[in-house]
Amino acid sequence: MSKLSYNNLIFLIIIVSSCLGLRSSAFTNLNTFSFEESLSPLFGDANLVRSPDDLSVRLLLDKYTGSGFISSNMYHHGFYSSMIKLPADYTAGVVVAFYTSNGDVFQKTHDELDIEFLGNIKGKPWRFQTNLYGNGSTPRGREERYRLWFDPSKEFHRYSILWTPHKIIFWVDDVPIREVIRSEAMGADYPAKPMALYATIWDASDWATSGGKYKANYKFAPFVAEFKSFSLDGCSVDPIQEVPVDCSDSVEFLESQDYSSINSHQRAAMRRFRQRFMYYSYCYDIVRYPEPPPECVIIPAEKDRFRDTGRLKFGGTEARERRRNRRQQTHEIESDPDERKL
Question: What is the C-alpha to C-alpha distance for residues 94 and 119, in angstroms, rounded to an integer?
């Protein structure tokens, strides 16, 4: 068994262990709804295809337009979740985003929480990023980038964002991949205004895949992302109403749910995920942030793996596996008398 396969196997064992912990899953009792109940088309209506039962939707990107949807309401703190299956085959330059934002209302002081899939070259591991902005702090984005341990185009997986006054957690299935604990030092950089849920597919050839090296190829169009099992809990508000809404009951509900806390098994899975699959962290990017942002928890052993730019020093498990294979192939050629004659 290759080292890469072994690492993935160990990680899957930890994931299974997390599901066998104090609770079977953080998402067994979610309230789900149809598209009509809480969502609306955002753009590219002809490329937004709802299922006959209205429980799922397909977002398409072709050479003319992408597509997207938005929640019908805005929420002051909430839990946003969907089962998603990404486009298959060659999808370089194609971004599928599942995120919250209030940019349409607060254009200069917007908040945002992102899960963005960054396109894929067939046969390569899928890459994606999470990010957060508060109060229009786009120069102080807090990106982390990762590889997935599975092919997200083969079947549906659940992607979720929890946002409360005290913490933010990004989930992939039952694995918490990132937790941000609010600190007073973050100030307005912590998202604090009501946000809507968005999902989009669009052409980001200029930056998404290997920094724009690989572009969208419409020979493979239409690119299709599928969404189902929508779940959305939070305090529905009008962001510009004069009388504030009391959202304390909603926050209390959110913080009482399984997805609002991380048990010991899930924390071990999160630590393993970040060790094996995170390849960029803004917390270790001292070129960009000479002083790490206040919410960063600097782990010396983890820091040693990253350059001053926040990227992995040695390219991670995937690069190590390629180097090992090259050494093995070279050794086989050198030890084969017939090959030496070539």
Answer: 5
